[in-house]
Write the structure tokens for this entry.
Amino acid sequence: MTAAGSNPTAQYRVLGTRVDAVQIPGVIAQIQDWIARRDSCRYVGAPAEKYTATLKGAIEQDSM
């Protein structure tokens, strides 16, 4: 993902899913760009704090 007018963001794979490391201003710029272009339907997800802690704990306890 690249926010409108910015450099590409760091991307990671988490549980087989691509995750873009984006700060709020970049997210807003990207959504505004999609709206302006009347781009296809998109989804934006943000982890809830309690789920982030649970996922972190599970990853830390994993053997691989």
Summary: The CA atoms of residues 35 and 41 lie 10 Å apart. The first strand starts at residue 10 and ends at 14.
